[in-house]
Every structure is written in C-alpha cells, then in structure tokens.
Recover the amino acids of this structure.
C-alpha cells in the first residue's frame, strides 16, 4: 500500500473578491507515493505545489477526493487524530522558519517539548540530531549567527525530532547558493537512505529533482501533467511543460532558432543522435561515422547521467558523400534514434 495516496483530489479557494472566479488550485489529482521514495513535485509558481503539500499534512482541507497518509484517511478525521498524523510528517521551508529567539538546541527541542517528552529523552534526541546534521558545536548559537545552509540543517533536525515517517521539503534549497544547495541535498539523501524516511520535495528547480529524486510529478495549472521515474521523464518528456523543465538542465534537440544559428556556423548536414540507457553505446555513433569516412563535428547537446544511467542527444554536423551519409544514417537508425534536422 502506498504511504501517501491521493485519489481525485481537488482544492478550490473561494474568490478573494465578489465577482472574481474561484481558484482551482488543485484539479482532480491522483498520486501514489511509496514508502522509501524521494518524490519530486515540479512546476512553475502558482502550479499548485504548496497547496498539494498542505493537503497532505492536512493544513488545508480538500474540496473533493480522498487523501490517505500512512493508512489514515486525512480527509474528515477528527483534530485529535490529525495531531498524531502531523507527528508522522516533518516539514522544512524555503525561509527555514526557525525561532529567532531560541538557540539551535531549543529550536530542535521544540517539537519534542510540544509532544510532552521527558527532559532526558529530549536531551538524548537533540544530541543525536545535532550530530546527524553536523552542528554539535552550534548548539548554543542563535539562528542569526548561522549561514543559510546551517539554518536549513537546523530546520531538518527540527523536522526529524519526532521521528516522522515523511519529510515534506517545500522549496527547501531555493534560498541557497548552488554549493550549499548540494550540501543540503546530500543531507536529505542521508535522511532517506540512513533513516528510511520518505521525502516529498517541491521545487521549481529541475536540477534538485535530477540529483535527489527517484520519482517526479510535473504540475501545471493544478493538474499533474506527467509523472514517473526521473530517468524516464528526463530522457523522454512527453508533455510540453515537462519538456520546458527538462530543457533547463538537459540540452536536447536544438530549437528552430538555435538550429539556424548552428547552420550559419557549421557546414554539412545537421543530425541529432538520441540514445538512452540500454541503447547501443553512444560511442558507436562516432565509430560508425568514422568507419564510413564521414567527417563530423559535435555542435550541440551532451550526455547526462541520472543515478548511473546515461542518456543524451548529440547533434553533429556531417560532411561527406551524400549517398554514403544516407546509407550510414539508415544503418544507424533503429539501433539509436537518428533525426536529421530540417
Ligand atoms: N489560501 C489561498 N487562498 C486563495 N488562493 C490561494 C490560496 N493558496 C493558494 N492559492 C492559489 O492557488 C494557486 C496555487 O498556489 P500554490 O501556492 O499551491 O502554487 P505553487 O506551485 O506552490 O506556487 P509557488 O511556487 O509560487 O508557491 C495559485 O493560483 C494561488 O494564488
């Protein structure tokens, strides 16, 4: 059974002013997230990502549909049961949301105090968490004395305090520079691998999904337009909005404008060779072309790696005898995908 399951869930906000239309923030979304996954939700601002997550931890009530988290029906449960459910779900935020007047220690201890744990229990747990996030020496510092990356590590420790099964990360790295982002992503991966916690990552940054997630859903206008294994969505995005996101981190097939710029700078026929894990190696492209005596120049594209699986689109300018090029491309097509750009 999935750890998080949404069936035909919708959330409509009433209009802000009389006469305005209601906002369909979530529109008939169905989604399953299995225990142990790192599940990415990507989409532009306003796509409905935060609302989706707020529905999962019951900060918002769905207008329609069913949400089940860890076997508990979230929709329509009494408040007492919701409090228990929320202990099962930790959350981290873009702006960290730490208590500025509390030390690092007290920030992390806070949810344990709220949950009524004993002093000894709190001391042992906070010590353990500080060690896990590498901030033992900062226990008595205040948030303003920390860097952004350190603040987010405190946020993660606080979110983990009550040993939740699920961690929701809402744009958790969007306020951080690229290097600090990678440090936080590495920590999140440890949270998943070492503690077995299921993570739902909301972001508009495709590279966060590429380095962290195992599964991804692409949201647009309150709907999930594409969903699947990160490798599949990155290597072969089917929907236009997924293709736009993927193109921010993967150089695919050149756009018409890029193609005319390439034609100005390069002689020959412009051909894209696309390959995915499991296809015969991309090295064979160069071997086959060289064997046929065709000259080639790599003009666009690259090879991508997602968790050890490779895919890419290599666009080459080919020069040589027309008939030899035709025959060679025909021979190569089928073994890998060959597309001559018009
Ligand atoms: N409390 C609310 N009342 C009215 N409308 C809301 C409310 N919360 C969200 N919305 C609307 O719902 C839509 C989805 O918003 P949401 O914040 O979920 O998107 P998002 O993908 O998380 O965007 P962002 O990345 O900017 O946070 C938007 O049109 C937003 O204006």
């Amino acid at each position: 059974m999935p750890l998080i399951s949404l069936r035909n869930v919708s959330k409509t906000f009433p209009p802000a002013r009389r006469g305005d239309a209601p906002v369909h923030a979530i529109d008939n979304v169905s989604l399953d997230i299995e225990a142990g996954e790192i599940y990415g939700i990507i989409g532009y601002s306003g796509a409905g990502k935060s609302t989706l997550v707020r529905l999962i931890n019951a900060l918002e009530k769905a207008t329609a549909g069913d949400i089940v988290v860890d076997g508990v029906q979230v929709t329509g449960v009494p408040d007492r049961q919701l409090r228990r459910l929320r202990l099962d779900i930790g959350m981290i935020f873009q702006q960290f949301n730490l208590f500025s007047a509390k030390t690092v220690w007290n920030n992390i201890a806070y949810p344990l105090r709220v949950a009524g744990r004993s002093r000894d229990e709190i001391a042992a747990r906070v010590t353990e968490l500080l060690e896990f996030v590498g901030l033992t020496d900062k226990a008595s510092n205040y948030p303003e004395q920390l860097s952004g990356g350190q603040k987010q590590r405190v946020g993660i420790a606080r979110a983990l305090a009550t040993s939740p099964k699920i961690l929701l990360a809402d744009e958790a790295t969007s306020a951080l520079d690229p290097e600090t982002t990678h440090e936080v992503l590495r920590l999140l991966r440890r949270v998943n691998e070492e503690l077995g916690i299921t993570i739902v990552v909301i972001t508009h940054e495709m590279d966060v999904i590429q380095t962290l997630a195992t599964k991804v859903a692409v949201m647009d206008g309150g709907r999930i337009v594409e969903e699947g294994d990160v490798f599949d969505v990155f290597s072969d995005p089917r929907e236009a909005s997924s293709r736009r996101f993927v193109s921010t981190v993967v150089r695919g097939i050149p756009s018409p404008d890029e193609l005319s710029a390439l034609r100005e700078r390069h002689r020959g026929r412009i051909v894209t060779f696309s390959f995915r894990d499991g296809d015969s190696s991309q090295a064979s492209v160069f071997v086959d072309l060289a064997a046929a005596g065709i000259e080639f120049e790599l003009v666009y594209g690259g090879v991508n790696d997602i968790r050890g699986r490779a895919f890419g689109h290599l666009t080459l300018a080919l020069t040589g005898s027309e008939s030899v090029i035709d025959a060679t491309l025909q021979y190569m097509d089928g073994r890998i995908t060959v597309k001559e750009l018009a």
Q: What stands out?
A: The first strand starts at residue 4 and ends at 13. The chain has two domains: 4-88+164-246, 256-340. The pocket of adenosine-5'-triphosphate is lined by residues 13, 23, 25, 43, 45-51, 204 (CB under 6 Å).
